[in-house]
């Protein structure tokens, strides 16, 4: 994720979908900026029980990034 994020930023893209590093155990990652990953990090080896919930929440974050909050009737 880190290498890809650098490439797209170099081309002028705005990144959305940052994801907090809290709850992950790792020593180092090129995908970390501040306290967030540049995108959703999936750990199927150690935290596969969290994948579905993480993906669902991340998709909502992405939707809000592009569409904004839902309109109320």
Describe this structure in words.
Strand 2 and strand 3 form a beta hairpin. 36% of the residues lie in helices and 8% in strands. The N and C termini lie far apart (39 Å). It has a single domain, classed as Rossmann fold, CATH 3.40.50. The model has no long low-confidence stretch (mean pLDDT 91). By secondary structure, it is mainly α.
- In terms of DSSP E residues, the strand content is 5-15%
Work out the radius of gyration: 14 Å
Number of continuous helical runs:
2
Largest sheet: 3 strands, antiparallel
What's the short story on this structure?
By secondary structure, the protein is mainly alpha-helical. The protein contains two helices and three strands, in the order H-E-E-E-H. Strand 2 and strand 3 form a beta hairpin.
List the helices and strands and how they pair.
Elements: H1 2-10, E1 19-20, E2 32-33, E3 36-37, H2 51-67
Antiparallel strand pairs: 1-3, 2-3
């Amino acid at each position: 994720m880190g290498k890809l994020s650098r490439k797209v930023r170099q081309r002028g893209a705005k990144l959305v979908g940052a994801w907090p590093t809290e709850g992950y155990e790792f020593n180092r990652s090129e995908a970390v900026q501040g306290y967030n990953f540049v995108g959703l990090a999936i750990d199927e080896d150690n935290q596969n029980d969290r994948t579905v919930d993480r993906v669902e929440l991340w998709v909502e974050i992405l939707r809000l990034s592009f569409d904004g909050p839902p309109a109320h009737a």
